[in-house]
Known about the structure:
The protein is α/β, with parallel strands linked by helices. Helix content is about 30%, strand content about 35%.
Amino acid sequence: MQLLKDHILKDGIVKPGNILKVDSFLNHQMDITLINEIGKEFKRRFSDCPITKILTIEASGIGIACIAAQYFDVPVIFAKKAQSLNLDGEMYCSKVESFTHKKVYDVILSKKFLGPEDHVLLIDDFLANGCALMGLIEIVKESGAVLEGAGIVIEKGFQNGGQCIRDMGVRLESLAIIDSMTDDSLTFR
Length: 189
Ligand code: G4P
Ligand code: NA
Ligand code: NA
């Protein structure tokens, strides 16, 4: 998606540890004109799928999912991150290991909001090692819903998440895939 790539090239900042800061338009301040176009693009790419729910994970996926959902005319559900909890059987739960934050957390979603009748599109801002997305995929499996695919705004193609998820047979649509980045250069696939 050219408009997104232009924003990344103009305003993205590469930080040590292979982190791309996109705080000025996606992760802190949000450029709603851009995110609206992102929403339209997800709809265009998944227009053949009978989506009934968009599933994301807190926090930064939520805003993007909500704007995209207007084009699908479906509810957004977001999985919550929890440190440790008393599972009462009313929640789907999976474990996620964050490499960026060096910790393991539980991802939970109420069983009330997802079931076998649903067709799910996953949406998130970043795909790096894919742990967050794997956690969401596990929850969809547990629910019996049909996983139609995943829409990612920025995929870091030099980390292994995208490959793992595609190898699982999941339809993955990333709007920008970064193949390499340094302080002064960034290349897209
Ligand atoms: P993974 O889910 O792909 O395995 O990645 P990892 O656990 O390493 O990522 C942890 C968090 O860092 C995720 O957000 C992920 O979206 C984000 N992230 C990974 N690489 C980058 C990057 O290069 N730039 C930016 N800006 N973010 C990155 P989170 O902290 O779990 O969630 P949120 O609350 O920020 O949404
Ligand atoms: Na995220
Ligand atoms: Na994030």
